[in-house]
């Protein structure tokens, strides 16, 4: 299970880096084309936005996988400390599972309505799939951390 979580985290990190690389590359190329060639790259800005969305939402799963997400500490003094993290993981798993459910509904409605991106006229649902994926894997990670607390990485601390 630990190997699965580490591999998942590594793959998500690579996809996020690739998405940001595409975003930066497209924006730089578009600026170059506009300033030097006096010609914009058609659709570059829209695709760059999609890349930033994908990389950004994958940041959620990366933060959960590294135990580096924001954590409310108000319950530390109310509940026995040994159970605070486990209860938090269970609540987080349930919340992310609910968000996953609603994001699946959102994507399926986008498919049924035939929603397309303005300017480049491509379907939106492939980009939107990152939301159910991110919420679903965040729920799965929190559920695993609830069931097997030893698999949760140590707190990453504050930056």
From TrEMBL:
<dbReference type="Pfam" id="PF04290">
    <property type="entry name" value="DctQ"/>
</dbReference>
<comment type="subunit">
    <text>The complex comprises the extracytoplasmic solute receptor protein and the two transmembrane proteins.</text>
</comment>
<keyword id="KW-0472">Membrane</keyword>
<keyword id="KW-1133">Transmembrane helix</keyword>
<comment type="similarity">
    <text>Belongs to the TRAP transporter small permease family.</text>
</comment>
<keyword id="KW-0812">Transmembrane</keyword>
<dbReference type="GO" id="GO:0022857">
    <property type="term" value="F:transmembrane transporter activity"/>
</dbReference>
<keyword id="KW-0997">Cell inner membrane</keyword>
<feature type="transmembrane region" description="Helical">
    <location>
        <begin position="43"/>
        <end position="66"/>
    </location>
</feature>
<feature type="domain" description="Tripartite ATP-independent periplasmic transporters DctQ component">
    <location>
        <begin position="24"/>
        <end position="148"/>
    </location>
</feature>
<comment type="function">
    <text>Part of the tripartite ATP-independent periplasmic (TRAP) transport system.</text>
</comment>
<keyword id="KW-0813">Transport</keyword>
<dbReference type="GO" id="GO:0005886">
    <property type="term" value="C:plasma membrane"/>
</dbReference>
<dbReference type="InterPro" id="IPR055348">
    <property type="entry name" value="DctQ"/>
</dbReference>
<feature type="transmembrane region" description="Helical">
    <location>
        <begin position="124"/>
        <end position="144"/>
    </location>
</feature>
<keyword id="KW-1003">Cell membrane</keyword>
<feature type="transmembrane region" description="Helical">
    <location>
        <begin position="87"/>
        <end position="104"/>
    </location>
</feature>
<protein>
    <recommendedName>
        <fullName>TRAP transporter small permease protein</fullName>
    </recommendedName>
</protein>
């Amino acid at each position: 299970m630990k190997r699965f979580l580490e591999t998942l985290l590594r793959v998500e990190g690579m996809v996020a880096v690739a998405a940001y690389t595409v975003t930066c590359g497209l924006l730089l190329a578009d600026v170059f084309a506009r300033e030097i060639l006096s010609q914009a790259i058609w659709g570059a800005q829209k695709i760059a936005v999609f890349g930033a969305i994908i990389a950004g939402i994958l940041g959620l799963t990366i933060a959960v996988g590294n135990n580096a997400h924001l954590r409310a500490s108000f319950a530390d003094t109310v509940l026995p400390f040994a159970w605070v993290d486990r209860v938090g993981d269970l609540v987080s798993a349930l919340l992310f599972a609910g968000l996953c459910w609603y994001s699946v509904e959102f994507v399926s409605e986008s498919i049924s309505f035939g929603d397309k991106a303005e300017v480049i006229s491509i379907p939106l649902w492939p980009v939107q799939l990152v939301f159910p994926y991110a919420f679903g894997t965040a729920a799965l990670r929190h559920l695993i951390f609830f069931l097997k607390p030893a698999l949760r990485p140590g707190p990453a601390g504050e930056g």
